[in-house]
Request: fold
Amino acid sequence: MMMQDRTPELLAVAQRFAAALPADAVLEIALTGSVSRGVADERSDIEMLVVTADQLSHEEAFAASGLPEPQSWGPQGGPASRVFGYREGVPIEQIWWSRAFAEEQVAGRAAADAIAHGVPLRTVGLLERWQTLLREYPEALALERIEQAAETWGGYAPAGVLTLTRDGERVARVQRMVGDAERIVRIVFALNRTWEPTLKRLAQRLEPLPLKPDRTAERLDAAFAQDDWLGLTELALEAVQLAPSGPNVDRARAWLAASAEALRG
Reply:
């Protein structure tokens, strides 16, 4: 089904909404998500990062959010506040960070994809500086992330995967498959020195990457549609075969090949 492009409409809503947030509390507002990337459709919401000079409590973020009847999701009471509500009939998700916490997150390349594609709705120059930093994806970081992603594939008998192919183990098997899919995606984006996105609109995000297994997005979809753990394992093997040699990568190559053989029966 062809979806209507709602980017201009939602961008205008986001701009009006951001302009109304309290100037004394909010330093920076960055539009993120599908609207910032110009791909919003009828099912999209508005996502934004709101940066304050000082740390706000959860209650203070609720009060400053500009949202009637605000709600929250995810962990509460930490350095990030998550606030959700509606404005002009549009769902809006806010992540509230203090400037100090934001600087720490950007330095650690957390939420790098969202920030790299962010659109300033209010700025004191922070987003531009962060995006300049994120233009470079250090090779050492890529190698580190590839090694971390490959770590799970090994260290126990490859035939152990067969325990999750028994009748009644579908939930446990799918749980493992989701983790494997996330690791494949992490490796592919690190190979291409491109900040890893969420798994939404994955085919679109994978399409321009030159280094990846053939038909990565289609094969990921097919693995879950057909409960094909073997196909997913073969895809993981192809991903690590593209990766530079390293202790975990080398182990994963041998282990995934043996696991695939076990799954073929």
The two ends are 39 Å apart (CA to CA).
